[in-house]
Write a structure and sequence with these properties.
Radius of gyration: 22 Å
Shape: globular
Strand content: 25-35%
Structural class: alpha+beta
Helix content: 25-40%
Number of helices: 12
């Protein structure tokens, strides 16, 4: 096993206290948004053998196992994170694998620089993701039904929202959601800013189900994404609950601390709540305009104590163990690569003692025994 030394990303939306509190460290006063664990080239974890990217590049089949290399290539196909939202993230959507390949090849062919602010596709991979709450965690996930969205907007009694209410009532589900999102994102920016200001005041006055959108407007005044967000389901996860976010599903994280795992990709199309580029035509091509339940996941327990968060993709598999002092050692040895992350208590992983926020990389086939009194998350692949 390799103990990991991980990079913390200081994105502006990050909490200043959540990750330091978990690590038992003093806050710096700066936002600490994400701690990355894995072999993403932007911030690979460090080991005593060198950056994890280099460790894997030197001997991919030894580190990842032949089955994982055959299925995903000579790279770790997932990125594990601690994510601490102190303010809302951008409203966004991710492409499926075919869309990502097509979009990446098109931008490469057109010579769009990989670091250009208007570039949509940084790679040819999809980016399904799973967020598991460590604290209460608020987010937006998937579309409400048009009727529910219409009721939420109509209750505000804002004149400039009434055309959207009418559209939501007038068309079948897919057309209604598409037309309203298109209208919101294509509206005159000055007029939309005035609508958002009036909407925010009404949301603050009404409270209840409208309160989250007043907070969004506080962080992103005048942003069309505030109105777009009202088309989505608001969900509050309790610790241990999770959300799976597949391709085409609009979503945003609002507040809380969680363990996030995703396919190793940077492909994001933004819908709003951001000063960054919003490519409306491409976004509308990617979004799945269908109402859906957020689908809160709870782990499924197996006889050996592993609690698995089931998802429909193979690039990652997330589970957890609630360890009890004095209980038998758990043998987690697998033929695929693993990252083990402690989130509570004290865990012994092989020769490594792990406290909250500490992690190890386990090469494929390496002996992996864990014990202790705490919680450990296990990230691997299905190969």
């Amino acid at each position: 096993m390799d103990r990991l030394d991980n990079t913390i990303r200081p994105y502006a939306w990050g909490s200043t206290t959540a990750i330091p509190r978990l690590l038992g460290a003093e806050p710096t006063g700066e936002p600490q948004a994400e701690m990355w664990m894995g072999a993403h080239p932007g911030a690979p974890s460090r080991t005593i053998r060198g950056p994890l990217t280099e460790v894997i590049d030197k001997a991919p089949e030894k580190e990842l196992g032949p089955a994982a290399v055959a299925k995903f290539g000579p790279r770790l196909p997932f990125l594990l994170k601690l994510l601490a939202a102190g303010a809302p993230l951008s409203l966004q959507v991710h492409p499926d694998l075919a869309q990502a390949k097509e979009g990446y090849e098109d931008e490469e062919r057109r010579g769009v620089p990989i670091d250009a602010p208007h570039r949509n596709y940084k790679d040819a991979n999809h980016k399904p993701e799973l967020i598991c709450a460590l604290t209460e965690f608020d987010g937006l996930c998937g579309f409400r039904t048009p009727a529910e969205a219409a009721d939420l907007l109509a209750a505000l009694d804002v004149d400039s929202l009434k055309p959207y209410v009418d559209l939501l009532h007038a068309h079948p589900e897919e057309a209604a959601l598409r037309e309203v999102l298109t209208a919101v994102l294509s509206a005159d920016r000055e007029q939309m800013a005035a609508t958002v200001t009036e909407t925010a005041a009404a949301c603050a006055r009404l409270g209840g189900a409208h309160a989250p959108y007043a907070d969004l407007a506080h962080h992103y005044p005048g942003d069309p994404g505030v109105i777009a967000a009202m088309l989505l389901n608001h969900v509050r996860l309790q610790p241990g609950e999770a959300l799976f976010l597949g391709a085409g599903v609009p979503h945003a994280y609002l507040n809380g601390l969680g363990v996030e795992i995703m396919a190793n990709s940077d492909n994001v199309l933004r819908c709003g709540l951001t000063p960054k580029h919003v490519d409306v035509p491409e976004l509308l091509r990617i979004v799945r305009f269908e109402a859906s339940d957020p689908g809160v996941l709870r782990p499924e327990a197996s006889p050996d104590g592993e609690e698995v968060y089931e998802t429909p993709i193979d690039e990652f598999r997330l589970s957890r163990y609630a360890l009890v002092a004095g209980a038998p050692v758990h043998d987690l040895t697998l033929g695929t690569p693993q990252i083990l992350l402690c989130t509570a208590g004290s865990v012994q992983a092989g020769e490594h003692a792990l406290g909250p926020g500490r992690s190890v990389f386990v090469p494929a086939g390496e002996k992996a025994e864990v014990s202790g009194d705490g919680t450990v998350f296990r990230a691997t692949v299905i190969a």
